[in-house]
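just leaving the lab so this will be short. below you get a single protein, a line of residues and a line of whole numbers that encode the local backbone shape. id like you to explain what the token line says about the fold, in plain words if possible. thanks a lot i owe you, the record is right below:

…
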Amino acid sequence: MSRRERIVIEIKNFAVSIVYGLITILLFGVLSSLIFSLILQFSGTQEKSISLLITIISFFAVFFGGFISGGKRKQKGWLIGGATGLLYSLIILAYQFLGQSSLFSIEQFIYHICYILTATMGGVLGVNILAGPSYKS
């Protein structure tokens, strides 16, 4: 196998791992949004009272997405997790800019920096937990 073919395979594996992480984040987000919308609709709970819980769950979703992408890739967890978090933030930025004609506020920018760092930590743990030992006895 030539060097060029190996590079193409590496890029494909990298992209597939990121897609797995993004799908995990988005599915987790859709499921939690459905649950919270039902809670808000059929109870007397106000959105303000569960905003901290929603923030915690969003960080968990991004962490888990980085974890899945790192475990799928089985190497360079910091890179694959960070790339997953960065791509997730860029998707949210594109949606907000194209759909709502606004950019990130300073507070949102800080949240998304934290999302990227959280996904990076998830990627590192995903490689170390899901990939198993990489040495030979």
About this structure: Helices lie at 3-42, 51-73, 77-100, 106-130. The chain is about 80% helix and 0% strand.
